[in-house]
Amino acid sequence: MVKLQTAFLLLVLTVLELSAQGSDTTFGIFRQKEYYFSNSFKLNWFKAVEYCRARGMFLLSVRNPEEREAIIEYLEGTGYLKTHKTLHAWISANDLGEEGEFHWASTGERMSYLNWSETEPNDFKIDECTREDCAILEYWSEGGANYNYTFNDRSCMREFLFFCETLPA
Ligand SMILES: [Ca+2]
Ligand SMILES: [Ca+2]
């Protein structure tokens, strides 16, 4: 009977472990900040903001080289780049309030770290009513200095992966 119970417990643990591995989300704590990476789960920018806030977090801000380095290190730890050559993930920068004036939605700060990909932001015209007002962090393994964890404005309604972070109170 004891053996049977042990076997059952092992089975439960194995199932739990498998379901944890199968999860498409990744939480991690890094340099006192907690991050969340949606991994394979895509939302438009507004829903990504809501998703983060509903978990007590904020859509990621990358306000200086240190914050850029931190998210790169965190992402490398998730193993995502072992299976993907590119990354396109929403961050909180947007110029929804005033065209061309990018601010971080999570902190309210004006963007001063201009880590844009070449020729960005271009406010590309999607259609008569839509241009590009929300920013992603983009990476391409063959992009060299460009697409190197740099920013690109995209249409807010497009669905991309995203990062959440905790911010100090
Ligand atoms: Ca714009
Ligand atoms: Ca763009």
UniProtKB/TrEMBL annotation:
Annotated keywords: Signal
Cross-referenced CDD domains: CLECT
Signal peptide, first to last residue: 1-22
Ranges for domain C-type lectin: 30-165
UniProt protein name: C-type lectin domain-containing protein
Superkingdom: Eukaryota
Pfam families referenced in this protein's UniProt entry, alphabetically: Lectin_C (PF00059)
Keyword Signal set for record: yes
